[in-house]
């Protein structure tokens, strides 16, 4: 079985397992809905600035919850089973694809919920905003998936994942918040640089994860 076949096989296994249990994805969606409702009760009167800020806050923590359980099922004896089943790169790629798809789903649901509770859609540049969501999901998925692997190999501590992930995602979040600000009409003039720098961070995160993950997994 080559690498691409292993990735597809593992991704199908992830989707089938989630479809049977529905616990991880259900908890993420429940978190997003509850957080958005609490935000609505606390804010009431939305503005473009509050919409943009709250959107990325909800999305970041939703992505953290979604990615934090990535390698919990591969602990103990299952680690040795996956070690012999597929290469570390294939395992990381399958987890990464699953987390990216989940983060994209969370981003769309968060957008719809905030727009519903705000009573209007503050996004004046939907195409630009969608591109920023795609790049944000890719970058958050790459960083959080690799950090989840480190946390799982260190004992599965959620605190460790939070401590490691937050400094790594700050540059990406800064760019995404500014890109979102342009999409809702708050900033202008450097919109292309936000996306290009976000793409550069995404590619760098993917490259670092693919290079370092085999050493983490085989340790």
UniProtKB/TrEMBL annotation:
Family annotation (InterPro entries): Cyt_c_biogenesis_CcmB
Pfam families: CcmB
Name recorded for this polypeptide: Heme exporter protein CcmB
Family: Belongs to the CcmB/CycW/HelB family.
Principal subcellular localisation of the protein: membrane
GO cellular component: membrane
Keywords from the named record: Membrane, Transmembrane, Transmembrane helix
Subcellular localization(s) per the UniProt record: Membrane
Swiss-Prot/TrEMBL GO biological process terms: cytochrome complex assembly
Spans through the membrane: 21-41, 53-72, 96-117, 129-152, 159-182, 194-217
Bilayer disposition of the protein: Multi-pass membrane protein
Gene Ontology molecular function: any one: heme transmembrane transporter activity
